[in-house]
Amino acid sequence: MNNLRKIIVNFLFISVLFGSISCSKETEEPEYSIIPTIELSDIYFVKSDSYEYKDTLALKIKYTDGDADFGLDDSFTEAPYNTLNYFLKNDGSYLTYSDRNTPPYDTLPPYEFPYYCYNYAIDWENNCDIDTFYVQQNRNHYNIFIDYYRKKEGKYELFDFKTTFGQNCGENYYGRIEGPSIYGVPLKSGKIEYPMWGARLYVIFKNDTLKLKIQIQDRALNKSNIIETPEFTLQEITKD
Questions:
Q1: What is the DSSP string of 108-140?
Q2: Cβ pair 231, 222 in contact under 8 A
Q3: Strand arrangement, sheet containing 37-46
């Protein structure tokens, strides 16, 4: 009888223990919106004195995403994550630069700077003929968007990396991040570290006051809030 009482008591103790763990888990697991949210955690700059390595401006960001579908890797190549959007003519063929000679396509921009940085791509058609296609950059190819703003005469102006350096088109700092996970299970909240490398970051901005605007997007194309860094100079945020 005593043994039976011990078994019952132990069973009740185990049940209460698991019950408390379950309740605790429910209270500790917050419900997040499926619309991502972000919060700036840190920003720092590392200057390279070597030609072999690039300067680095890095962000640390806290994020939440209620359905844990934040993250893109190189396998996401099909629409809506394709790099460029191509246009078709009425006959179903691709719209190319040579079509500028024929109405109604004569309003297309010329193949000159800065239009060829955004609106034209030299590519193969059906893996046979190379041509210059009229295109549109697809923002949904990326899932993190960083815009640089430089202070000039007391006002902040967007710094366009694609067109600032003359005839050679540059690259902006929109990118892809694979969503954080534990043992392959995507996380609904976590931290992102996003380094931005550039061979001339210090040369370009060494005398400037900057701020960045940051946004992320999940695979359902839900956009997060936009956050801004405090204004800074590279010298102020430099790490050894």
A1: SPPSSTTHHHHSEEEEEETTTEEEEEEEEE-GG
A2: no
A3: 37-46, 55-64, 189-198
**Domain match, 62 and 156 both:** yes
From 135, 123, 126, 137, select the one nearest 95 (Cα to Cα): 135
* Mean pLDDT computed over every residue of the chain: 87
- Give me the numbers of helices (H) and strands (E) for the chain, helices first please: 3, 12
Which residue reads 């931290």 in tokens? 191
Question: Could you report the per-residue pLDDT of 92-129, keeping only the tens digit for each?
Answer: 999 999 999 999 999 999 999 999 999 999 987 666 67
Note whether 113 and 224 are same-domain residues.
no
**167, part of any domain:** yes
pLDDT band at 12 (very low <50, low <70, confident <90, very high): very low
> 161 and 126, same structural domain?
no
User: Distance between CA atoms of 96 and 108, rounded to whole angstroms?
Assistant: 10
pLDDT at 212: 99
- Residue 101: give the domain boundaries: 84-137
DSSP state of 200: T
